[in-house]
Structure formats: C-alpha cells, structure tokens
Amino acid sequence: MDRGGGQAVETTSQAGPRTVDDYLRAPFPWYGLDEAFTGPRWLMQVGTAADGTVQHGSTGHGDEPSSVRTADSGPERERFAVVVTVASSPLRRSGDGTGVLEATSVSSAAWLAGSGLLAYTWPAQMDHTLRDDWLDQQTETAFELADDLGGPEWSSLSLPVDGVATRFAYRESEFGWVLAGSTEGGVPLGAYGRGMSAYGLGFSVVKDISVYA
Fold first, then answer.
1. Phi, psi for residue 52 in degrees, rounded to 5
2. What is the pLDDT of residues 154-187, one digit of tens each?
C-alpha cells in the first residue's frame, strides 16, 4: 500500500484469528505499554507483505473495544490504548517485483494508527452504505494528516520509550487520540486510544508476547 508521504506499507489482509505465532514471525521487536500499565493486554492482527513477511502489527491494552461505538460507548465503557509497531524498512522492491516501495517512516505509523482508530468508531446511527462513504472520507483524511505531521492538526508530546524521552506527533479528535514517532533505534511507532489519556503513557519492547495471548 503506497499513498505517498513515506507511508508505504505493503500488506495483505489483517483479518483472521489472532495467534502468538503470527507475532513470532516478525523480524523486529514488538512494542507495548511499559510495566506501569497493569491492566489487560490482548493481541490484535499483523499485516504481512505478499511474500508473507510481517510488516507491522498492533498490541492492545485495556478494554478490548467493540467494532461499533454505540450511544452507551464512551470512556467509562471503553478505555483502551493500542500500540502499532512498524518494520523499519528502507526503499525496497514490491512483493511482486513490479515496482519500488518507499521506506517506512513515522508517517507510516501515523497512518496505521489513524486508520486503526477509525475501525472502532463506526457511527452507530448510520446504515451500511453511509458507513462506507463515511469511512472512505475519514480514511482519506487520515492519509492527509499522516502526510503532514508538522501541520497545525498535530502537537508535540514527549513520552518515554524504553526509558528514553521520545518526541511524538500527537492529535486528538472526536474519536480518540493518535500519536506517532520513532524509537531511538529507528523503529516507527504509533498508538491510538480512547478513554485512556495518552499523557503519562510509556512504551517498551515486549519481552514476552505470550502475555498478550
């Protein structure tokens, strides 16, 4: 998938059962909330390239959100934060060998985090046709925002990653919050959530992914 702005993330479907094995195939370390978070942790899905290589994935924390936000949903009902880890990839050939994909970047993490939040914010009052139109519009907005991390929609937030203060681009919306940055080792990292404040969160390498299973 390449929508410009260094957001290239070549993936196949992320659907299917969530298993630790999918995460163990990744050639990079996963990130999650650090030990200060003591709530539930759960697996989401990984995204893979055409050749099966894991490109990115997410780890969930807090209340596992429903796919539709209803009138009863809200910070009191759903408090969650999802951390998105993206493989640090240079300029490379596409999986089918027909083209070249841009390197992954912080914009890649911002796009994946923004689109991930949208997946859990369906307006409950819309019918399926209107929801499709709404999602298309919101997805395009997420792409545009990820292309302009220095723009007015974003502010700067410093949070620890493995104990090191790290600058993230941060924005809030009616749906929740999204942030994106890069670890000291150059791994693009994103996060999104609702009901849990992003301020005060910390991130660290997941030492044992099985604790999320």
1. 90, -5
2. 999 999 999 999 999 999 988 899 999 999 988 9
Residue pair 90/164 in contact (Cβ under 8 Å)? The answer is no
One-letter amino acid for residue 201 of the chain: L
pLDDT at position 18: 67
Report the relative pairing of strands 164-173 and 80-86 from DSSP bridges.
Answer: unpaired
Please return the burial class of 136, using the count of CB atoms within 10 Å of its CB with bins 0-12, 13-18 and 19+: exposed
| Closest to 165 in 3D by CA, of 187, 181, 148, 188 | 181
CA-to-CA distance for 44 and 23, rounded, in angstroms?
A: 10
Give this prediction's pTM: 0.82
* CA–CA separation, 211 and 93 (whole Å): 35
30 and 84 in contact (C-beta within 8 Å)?
no
For residues 139, 184, 161, 171, the Cα torsion angle rounded to the nearest 10 degrees is -30
Do residues 79 and 95 make contact, with C-beta atoms less than 8 angstroms apart?
no
